[in-house]
Amino acid sequence: MSRRYAAVLATALASGACGGDLTPLRERTIAPSAPVAAPTVRVTWLGTAGVRVDDGWTALLIDPFVTRVGVGAIVFGKGLTTDPEQAAIVDTRDVAAVLVTHSHYDHLVDAPYFAEQADAELLGSLSTVNVGRVAGLPESRLVAVEPGQPRIYGDFTVTFVESLHGPALFGRVPFPGAIEPRIELPASASEYKMGGAYGIVIEHPAGTIVHHASASWIDGMYEGVQADVVLLGLAGRDDTTDYLAHVVDATGAKRVIPIHWDNFFRGFDEPLKAIRAAKIDEFFATVDASRPDLSIESLPLLQPRTVLGG
Ligand SMILES: [Zn+2]
Ligand SMILES: [Zn+2]
Q1: Distance of CA 87 to the CA centre of its chain
Q2: Cα of 214 to ligand 1 centre, how many Å?
């Protein structure tokens, strides 16, 4: 990865000026709901593809990434490390597992920190496990996932499903390859190589959520899965109709919550802005034209919302 390529990549990702009108997302924000006795699952969006999923007893963190840095830090290869003050915005109570869909820094960089804080397992590819090990997590809490093999945390059953990373930059996967066991931390963005991508199926008595962070797929990957809601990564997708067919229609879900659409080079103290690669306007135009029955809902930043049950 040359520095020049990193610069082009960062600039392309950061140019959010044409990122689209956020009105359709704002209008669809899920409202707070009163507590009910039935099993419910709440989701808190942490920005980018990050979410906390909890049912009041057990919680999962998926791709929790909150140590945001500006484009300059990416271009100049700054070592990325969790800022505990920033990380404090994430509720780590009851977290049993930290799940990582792929090893790019905007998914992985803070995951070992949260696993450490919460005494939780870290699950992901071998690349993710390599980073977790160097970060100091004990072997007993590192889980290199086997696609299709469910793991149980409280009332949640979690299954990683093999997928592909979207063509996020000029038709290419940025930072391809795997992270070696001898990676030195802190590492720069370009050292957080992709390492294999997964969708995650989260089953619960209240229903089933699919978390699909990266905007590509393997044909048939969700065969046999029946989901209520898909948390759908928008950034870096190619054809929206194909994407919806293989990832949303394939699961039978009638509800979609967009994730990974915001400009993650901006701090949490700045207003949300879309990243150009999320093509927000085109997404809504395509859904309106081709999927009138599909309900698109959005999550506010850092506020839990009931997504299943209730
Ligand atoms: Zn990625
Ligand atoms: Zn990403």
Answers
A1: 16
A2: 6
